[in-house]
Amino acid sequence: MHSLSVSGQPSLLCQLEWKSLNQVPDSHIWPPDLLHHHPTSNIIPPSSSMPIIDLTAADSVLIPLVGRACETWGAFQITGHGVPLRLLDLVEAQTCRLFSLPSAHKLRAQRCPSGGVTGYGPALISSFFSKLFWSEGFTIVGSAQEDARKLWPNCFNDFCSAMEEYSKGMKDLSRRVIVLMLRSLGLSEEDIDEVGPLRGHDEVEPVLQLNYYPPCPEPDRTMGLADHTDSSLITIIHQSSCVTGLQLLHHDESDNPRPQWVEVPPILGALVVNVGDLFHIISNGRFHTVIHRAVVDRTWSRISVAYFCGPLAHFKVGPIQKIVDPNHGPAYPGITWPKYLSLKKKLHNETLASIRLPLAAKRQDDEKKVL
Ligand SMILES: C=C1C[C@]23C[C@@]1(O)CC[C@H]2[C@@]12CCC[C@@](C)(C(=O)O1)[C@H]2[C@@H]3C(=O)O
Ligand SMILES: O=C(O)CCC(=O)C(=O)O
Ligand SMILES: [Fe+2]
């Protein structure tokens, strides 16, 4: 069923017709050591399920809640966010419409194999794995027009206008959430205008990742989207309301020393916020960039739409000086989003560690040794 590409990876050109399969092909069977790369059981201690924050509360209530969620979970769900259910349904319906197209149509908008980002294809991180994901993706950077035209030459407008309206809603919402996060780090409104990562935010090209996870006859032997952190400042995810799939790796501070995978329960109308690598950097390591993955279901397909909020391309993101402890110094250097993404393409989950700076105290010791 699969041909092999030059890299030895099964080629996407032979896209799976998921429905025709009653068994998972070898190309999609993940060896247990990769599947269980972190301890797996989905035990969710009721005392520590991920925070759900209602954004209709006053900022004075929200700021500590958001800060605590970012420090302990690196993720939270938001309700009362003001994005109408109608828009969430619309974007989900258009995403469904895209992935329901015959494979040959979808492949007309295939992501350019030589390093392209936009278009149809497996999630970019799939290149780090020898096995394929049980999913399909579609990445939109900026406008979806060019690719949508390839999919529906005569009727691409509905898709584009839904994605545009959704991106606009997400841009406003991400600004609100990021301000709450920065306030929780002790920054004032004025500090945020001066040093915050949102300067020029209106000009930032929106990045949307549409994900489709078909039903799978052997869900325990395959992977929808393998564990990763997002590179963004934050990611806002809308997931289908009836099917679970998104899981976070959570380190429960209190009793359990081992991290556990925790399901993110779909809540009608709620959105999931993930802290991304760049916010971890800004917060000098205080906010947790959350490792997450998507598993698949035997009976139900699932859709998710992720909005990646990042800074302007030329803007260097580094630990905010005001919150850096002078005794320890910054934990990371300043870096632009494009530079970070290019490192991430090479190093995947090792990217943050690769740029982490030694502690200032240790640096001084080392310098003394050299002298
Ligand atoms: C802005 C981006 C974040 C992303 C890489 C990208 O250039 C466009 C796609 C994004 C995505 C979506 C699925 C998961 C992810 C890890 C991937 O493979 O592609 C993220 C990337 C990321 O956050 O690093
Ligand atoms: O499908 C999901 O819920 C997760 C999607 C995701 O992590 C991503 O697109 O980066
Ligand atoms: Fe993600």
TrEMBL record:
Keywords: Iron, Metal-binding, Oxidoreductase. GO terms for molecular function: metal ion binding; oxidoreductase activity. Its cofactor is L-ascorbate. Residues 203-311 form the Fe2OG dioxygenase domain. InterPro entries: DIOX_N, IPNS-like_FE2OG_OXY, Iron_ascorbate_oxido_reductase, Oxoglu/Fe-dep_dioxygenase_dom. Belongs to the iron/ascorbate-dependent oxidoreductase family. This is Fe2OG dioxygenase domain-containing protein. It comes from Zingiber officinale.
